[in-house]
Amino acid sequence: MSRQQWMEYNEILFSAHSCAIEGNTFTVDDTRMLHEEGMGMVPVGRSLLECTEMSDHFRAFDYMTSHLQHPFDEELLKEVNRLTTEHTLAYRVPGAIAGEYTTEDMAAGDTVFGNHTELVARVPSLMASTERALANGQHPMVVAARWHGFYEYLHPFRDGNGRTGRLMSNFILLRADHPLLIIELADRNEYIAALRQIRTEGTDEHLVTFFFNVAMRRMRGELSQKEHNSRPMLFF
Q1: How many CA atoms lie within 13 A of 195 on its CB side?
Q2: Angle (deg, nearest 10), helices 48-66 and 28-37
Q3: In 3D, which of 203, 202, 98 has the Cα closest to residue 159?
């Protein structure tokens, strides 16, 4: 397939699974339909909020993939978050501004994050150290995993931290000509556990290993599909 077709294939899979991790009920087929038809075709049984969330994710993905030469900085991070949450944030958090850092302490699931002022203040250092790591030739998968873990620890936005984090991790990989990392809904528990171990054990080695395992599982799965679907079949 062409590069454009390959990116569309990835965009649909990645968007479906990344939003599903946060509770969106869209299937891959629902996501493909919305991607092809736009908001004029709402899949049966899906809410308008879910459609809007998915549509915003498409816009954030397209921005991310078309700005791979952009410095890995706060401006990029804020714009990706703004696009990710632009049309749903006002519904979920009235008064919050898409793309702006949280003004309140945060909690998600069973996790209460630290003092938001102190955590947000660390974001510039995280972005700068990550850019240096990439410039120094560290493995992009390791850099993407480590950045993702520390970013989720900081949880700097009022909403969309998970989706924004996964988009930005893929920015790192795509800029280095690596395939996208797609964390599937089925991997959610393992993924959350790896993130939790950063807080409980003070190490990101579990998340780095998880990133590599997800990438290898996907590669093996797609190669297996290609091999299986290349076998000769008997036609009647």
Answers
A1: 25
A2: 70
A3: 98
